[in-house]
Amino acid sequence: MPSLAGVAEQKALVDLPAAGGKPDSVVVRDALGVGVAVGLSGFAFGVTSAGSGLTLLQTCVLSLLVFTGASQFALVGALAAGGSPFTAAAGAFFLGVRNAFYGLRLSEVLRLTRAVRPFAAQWVIDETAAVALAQPTRRSARIGFVVTGLSLYVLWNLTTLLGALGAEAIGDTGAWGLDAAGPAVFLALLAPMLKSAAERAVAGLAVVLGLGLLPVLPAGVPVLVAALAAPVVLWAQGRGSGR
Amino acid sequence: MNTWIAIGLTVVGCYAVKLIGLLVPAGALERPLVRRLAALLPVALLAALTAQQTFGDGQALVLDARAAGVTAAALALVLRAPFLLVVAAAVVVTAGVRAMGG
């Protein structure tokens, strides 16, 4: 739905060509590749969530309405560990904060009208940002965002449901090793982020804090304290470079 | 009830941060320090969560089959295996070690 303001915005924009560059079919194929591969991992979430003691409805509501994997895994993990609803939600929230920064980049690239933004927001996640921001033109970025978002949303929710139903059917998810799916997902999300010494220092300090404080602080709180590793390392880095 | 409170807070919070990114003018959060912190925050959280869900059992630290499973996942990541294979490696190895009485 174009508006006068939207047209003015588009005319003022110079950083991206509106069309040309990459064939639509190539963009759709790339986007579907990401959407399908990651969408299928909703199965791991469904199993983990059901194994953590959430009901089928609770599990499906999380995938439908939260729709950002790391936060969902963190929430059910914290609840399973006996965390209070507030510390559990805080951990999930802080993990979701990175989506705000994807949104900043995406709003520059996609140029959405105000009316569309509340609907597009639910799809602002790691994968849609990765696909859309890698495109050479506005047209392909928009196609990439919509195709990745739609395929991932549909599959993630479908596989969440199947995973939760499957977990209920097999009973003891631990016997099948399914309690290792959560930490493996976190590790797979973390690995590509460990690019420089600063990232590794943050990760190392966070592990020490997270494990060291686990026996002494209430469930869910150690993760929040471990998040302080980020500002601590930044501060130490600033001091180091300031001298 | 507690679970629903946690779900409600997470739904509202996670949607709000997604929407804020699309609504605020570019440049508002573009200060280098803020960007750097935003990039490092998930690193800290994911690292702590990985460690806790591998070695934590309630408030105790334990070394059990999950450690073997997550090590297998790490190995799969080093070998550049796709996402689903990484998770599958962790699940299969954990189940295998447990089946052998580990």
TrEMBL record, chain B:
Keywords: Membrane, Transmembrane, Transmembrane helix. It holds the Pfam family AzlD. InterPro entries: Brnchd-chn_aa_trnsp_AzlD. The keyword Transmembrane helix applies. The chain crosses the membrane at residues 6-25, 37-55, 67-97. It comes from the Bacteria. This is AzlD domain-containing protein. It comes from Streptomyces lanatus.
